[in-house]
Amino acid sequence: MKSHMCRVFSTGILVALAGCAATPPPTLQTGPDAEVTVDGLVRMDNPVVDVAYHKPDMDLTPYTRVMLDPVEVAYQKDPGNRMRSTGAGANDNFALSPSQMETLKDMFREAVVEALTKDDGYELTTEPAPDVLRITASLIDLVVSVPTRSTGRQDMYARSYGLVTLILELRDSQSGEILARAGDRRDPTRQTSAGLARVSPTFIRSDVRRMFQYWGNLLRERLDAFRVM
Questions:
Q1: Is-contact 66 124, C-beta < 8 A?
Q2: Which of 53, 60, 84, 131 would you call most buried, defined as having the most Cβ atoms within 10 angstroms of its Cβ?
Q3: pLDDT tier, 229 (very low <50, low <70, confident <90, very high otherwise)
Q4: pLDDT category, 8, cuts 50, 70, 90?
Q5: How far apart (Å, rounded) are the C-alpha atoms in residues 62 and 48?
Q6: Per residue in 201-222, pLDDT tens?
Q7: Radius of gyration of the chain from Cα atoms?
């Protein structure tokens, strides 16, 4: 398993992205055995994420503004009506309520917007233009491992709140050309020294927001680094 320091989210677009000292630097695959997607993206080796691809000739320097698509969320397994089910193994994927789902989406967007716009950062826009980079993010394979409604029990603890995979795509906003794609699967749970985390709305919200802020800040850092290369 990758260490916490090594397991960081990357857009997968920076060949110069530094990993941990003992980790080989990310490099784009070359030669006849290079893995290429149907839309022309080439896989990176040692991407510091689960998987990352980008265009061999990609150039992000023309882009000074960003356009964010609404985030989409998809469960790994349909939770159905398991919200009230009981019994061993019955609650392996709890359902978020409609309001909880909207809160999740809002939290993600707020974290990314804050990261991209702070410190005289990037201007947000809703209109395509030659200088606009379109960013599409999806939270997929969502697993909610703890009840999303109060069970009446006090001081509940769990080893994990759940798991989610972030898929990020970068496109030219005018042509729609795909420039890069990467994904990272994470558990937002901040465990105590005992290896357990308290199950409460406050703690869960804090840990999920921290995970989203981490992704947003790293995206900003990588985009900034690429612009000055």
A1: yes
A2: 53
A3: low
A4: very low
A5: 26
A6: 888 898 999 999 989 988 887 7
A7: 19
Alpha helices in 125-173 (DSSP H): none
Which distant-in-sequence residues (6+ apart) come within 8 Å of 157 by Cβ? Answer: 196, 197, 198, 199
Contacts with 146 (C-beta within 8 Å, 6 or more apart), sequence order: 94, 156, 158, 161, 162, 199, 204
**Which of 104, 97, 91, 113 has the alpha carbon at shortest distance from 208?**
104
**DSSP H or E stretch at residue 162:** strand 162-172
Query: What is the pLDDT averaged over residues 179-187?
Result: 91
Name the residue ranges covered by the structural domains of the chain. Answer: 57-227
> Using an 8 Å Cβ cutoff, are 132 and 170 in contact?
no
Distance CA 48, CA 23 (A): 9
Instruction: Please list, in sequence order, all residues whose beta carbon lies within 8 angstroms of the beta carbon of residue 109, skipping any fewer than 6 positions away.
Output: 68, 70, 71
Query: Which CATH architecture best describes the domain 57-227?
Result: 3-Layer(aba) Sandwich (3.40)
**Cα–Cα distance for residue pair 198/189, rounded to 1 Å:** 9
Tokens describing residue 46:
């040692």
